[in-house]
Amino acid sequence: MMNHDLFSSLSTQQNQTIEKIIQLEKEIENEKNKDKRAKKEKEVNKERIKLLSPNAHLSYHSLVAKNKTSADNFRSAWQNKNLQIDLSGHINEQGLNDFLKENFSYPSINISLLPRYSFLIQFTFTLEKPYISRDEQDFYIIDNPIRKDRVFGLPYVASSSWKGSLRSALWQLGYKAEDDDIRRIFGSERKTEEHERLRAGRLYLFPTFFTKKGLEIVNPHDREQRVGKNPILIECVPEGTSGIFTLLYVPFDLIGKEEKEIKKQVSRDILLIARGLEAMFRGYGFGAKTSSGYGIAKSELTDGKLVLKAEGIELLQKEEIKIEEPEEAFKKYLNDDGSVKEEFKGGGEAGLLSNKQYNEKKEQLAGGSLAEFKKFRLWYGTYGELWQKHIGAERTPEPLCPVWSFESFNELLEKAEEIEKVLKSKEVSQ
Q1: CA separation for the pair 303, 183 (Å, rounded)
Q2: Could you read off the pLDDT of 348-394 as tens digits, one per residue?
Q3: HSE-up (13 A, CA, CB side) for residue 224
Q4: N or C terminus: fewer CB in 10 A for the chain?
């Protein structure tokens, strides 16, 4: 009742502006003078802007009751403004992007504080098809608003929506709610009554915020005449918009269990989640109207990373890369960190001195024969970079949380398969 009283009061306050808009539009319609018409159009636009915030839906419905043409013109003005998200009153000098990253996009997660074999998957995706969802707002200028946060009005995908879409994608792949793999990842369904089957899931998904809004037009056709007469406006996040996806997996219920069983379950879950993400983003979609093709992302990703809290995995990967150590005679050309000494750098192969340059400076250099240097130059061109990384790795403690990078959903799946093999390997440190 209080809301209705408030809206009634606001409508009364806006009535004067509404009447002025209707009057000005009538004058514009009858005005022959081009300059005078332009002046009145500028004036009526100012009046429309007064009604756009904060309750545009009230103004629109009031205009519909009085003049349909005025209402359509007002909604056109709202559409132009609706595509813009203005956070100027909330951001600092660092700008909008820094503000969003600090407060919305990148959750602060210290995975080293979590149980062993917890992992984080995060990447920036770009919409290939618009994203549609349903807002909880009761009153809006159109019937199909997208879900937005209440403070800044940013369109977003809620954590619960991500979870539901991922579960749905896995169901489409053949995984059922009663499967053990699904229950340990997502937890029990709400309707579960058996006490022994009740459990919390290991998965937590963070919301994704967008900085763009758009409008989709759906025009249902008459079955007999095959002509659309009543186009429907649907608020959306347009294609080409980017968002950041963040997923956290915490095997809290495996604490104290045997190492073999922990690795078995976690390796299965990593691969299952990667398959589900690829299916959700590339195949089945997320949000509303996915059966019509909405909510699909491009296959290419930016800043993709999978962080796993597990010691020994990074070392195992490095051992798979064969590095030929430098001969003892080659060490006089190298610094302690494996890089080439400055006096041996030049315009030849691998960025070293050419044969001519070496002969010209040979007396000034503490090197060996030209034949030896040529042999060193060949080794450095093949193994120099790997040797520097090897030296650096020996001096740096093995990371507690190794990171795998990926640039597509296919690569994410490949990394998940690699990690599954590594976790099953007996060489992983206990």
Answers
A1: 30
A2: 888 899 998 888 888 888 888 889 989 999 999 888 888 887 787 66
A3: 0
A4: N
Kindly give the interhelix angle for 259-279 and 159-172, rounded to the nearest 10 degrees: 90
Angle at alpha carbon of residue 149, lines to 146 and 151, rounded to 5°: 135
* CA-to-CA dists, residue 197 to 190, 202, 258, 264, 374, angstroms: 11, 15, 21, 21, 69
